[in-house]
Specification:
The chain is of the alpha/beta class. It is built from 29 helices and 14 strands. The strands form 4 sheets. A 4-stranded mixed beta sheet has the order 2-1-3-4, with helices on one face. Strands 6-7-5-8 form a 4-stranded antiparallel beta sheet. A 4-stranded parallel beta sheet has the order 13-12-9-14. The protein starts with a helix and ends with a helix.
Length: about 700
Amino acid sequence: MKRILNNIIALFVVIIVLFLVIPLPPQLLDFLLIINIGLSIMILMITMNINDALEFSIFPSLLLITTLFRLGMNVSSTRMILRDGYAGEVIQNFGQLITSGNVVIGVVVFLIIVLVQFIVITKGAERVSEVAARFTLDAMPGKQMAIDADLSSGLIDEKGARLRREKIQKEADFYGAMDGATKIVKGDATMSLVITLVNIVGGIILGVVMNGGELMDVVQRYSIVTIGDGLVSQIPALMISTATGMIVTRSVSEGSLNIDVMNQFKAQPRAMMTTGVILLFLAVIPNTPHVPLTIGGVVVLVIGILVSQSLKREAAAAAAAEAAPAEVEEELAAPSETDYYKDINNVYTLLDVEPIEMEFGYSLIPMVDESHGGKLINRIVIFRRQYAQDMGFVIPSVRLHDSASLGTNQYLVRIRGEEVAQGEILVDYYLALEPAAPLGEIDGIETVEPAYGIPSRWILPENKEMAEIYGYTVIDPLSVMLTHLAETIKKHTYELLNRAETIQLVENLKRTSPELVEEAIPNIITYANLEKILRNLLREGVPIKDLGTILETAVDAMAQTHDVDMITEQVRGALSRTITRRFCENGQLRVVTLDAEVEKRVIASLTRNEQGVYLAMGPDLMQEIITQLGEHMKKFNDLSQTPVVLVSQVIRGYFSRMITQFYPNVYVLSFNEVTSNVQIQALGNITIQAKAHTERKAVGS
């Protein structure tokens, strides 16, 4: 029984299709016609009382089913009309009701009803559905960005964002389905005219030619039945068409149609009173219907006055509530801070640490506040999306809030509750980055670009074009702040990767590679070790987007060693194409290399203890390497390229950690991380003897 109930709609559709073939008795047809009328009334009432179109999301499918239901009964009634000239009491009585003994009147009224549905309601609903579907699809990207912005600013959580995204997708699917469903309504109206014409013409031919009846009697008989048949079909169709128009025009409604109409008319008492006065004025004009106009004018005027008085009373009550004594408000307000923290559970709220926070001074609020045209949130959303596509890691939401402890033009960035960067910008100025050899001097306030440390100056907007002519790179204040935030986040991304994020990444991989995840975790590699590997990669700017390759390589490496650093090096080798793409330009990779003797000295400095292997290099050798690397860094600055040092795989990780302490923007790659199709160009070579190196440099110059 339960299985039958679960499939009742499917069985109903099958039965409807059978109506097209199997003859129905008149009594059953009468019953089905009444059900059809009742169902159409119910659908119309539902569409008028819902607050949101998605509350009745089955409407497109229901529209198809009800249309098929009507057509099935039309075919059955047509069979009876042509065969017997009679199709049950419902059709007969409706036909007599509308014709009132005059066939011409019945035909005219029936045609008016059909044309109203076809030309007015159906055509309008079709156009509204088409526009709503197009606008809904066009608005999807903007709505998605708004959700991401709210999520980034902390206004909603991940669950709320997911629910809003699902609603947007359902809206797009619904209005897309409604765009097609209105074509069904249009086809139904057209088909009703065809069936009516077939019934009349076919009935007359059968009654006169085959049955030998009198022409006028046959016309009278078949016209009444045909009009009745068309009427019992068109009344439900008209209500369904009206419901279609109702449901596709609910986009700006805040409640049900009844509530919206009452509230919005109630909000305009002046319009009611003006209308009443105009009606009374028309009543005194000669040759006008004085009594109806007078009654209508008085009723509308009285209603307008009553509504106006009601609104005044509500406004006075609201003003009285706002003017309540401050003492009462304080009593009703939240308890004092001391009372609040008497509850030990409330003290725990102070322990929450945000992954990323950005605080800003008073003058920078307009850049963040969307109600004042602030675009920082939207720009952060775009950055998060781009970073996720590039690096395979979703940056947590950035909590934005103002701070009275900062200067009006200052901002700072916190990672895990600790300050990691700060800066100061001038909202009404532009930042001009100084080129190596400017063509001219521009007036401005000297400063340093916060993200990259480039000498710059804050210039007035009117000097922007001249600065660009002189070769300066001019940046707006919002881009300066966002760039600093983005670079800070990139630098500390590995700190943001925690156990929960690692599990989330694995769960995402499980959708495409469930066998790999089942084999690897936790049987071979734990979430903790995988997190360390991913952190090592992110620390040096290596994308973790290809998590499948990372996990496969880590599983294979675990058979040889359990040292996370060594496993990371093997993973980097498996990601050679990705690493090469990030640092290679036009098929060339410009690097600084280590002399063979230097590499031997570095390898000899590797020391193992209980915690693992570390680099114990002497201070003289370290100073030599750091000094020479600083000289070679100037060559990369001239080329505007990322500094890269190329070493062997054995020392890459240890050498990178040493170099990062002095030059955090230098990347250390190993030879097996560079693909064979790349041309390596050495800009310099680090040797042991600084004196010999200096002499060679002098000879070369």
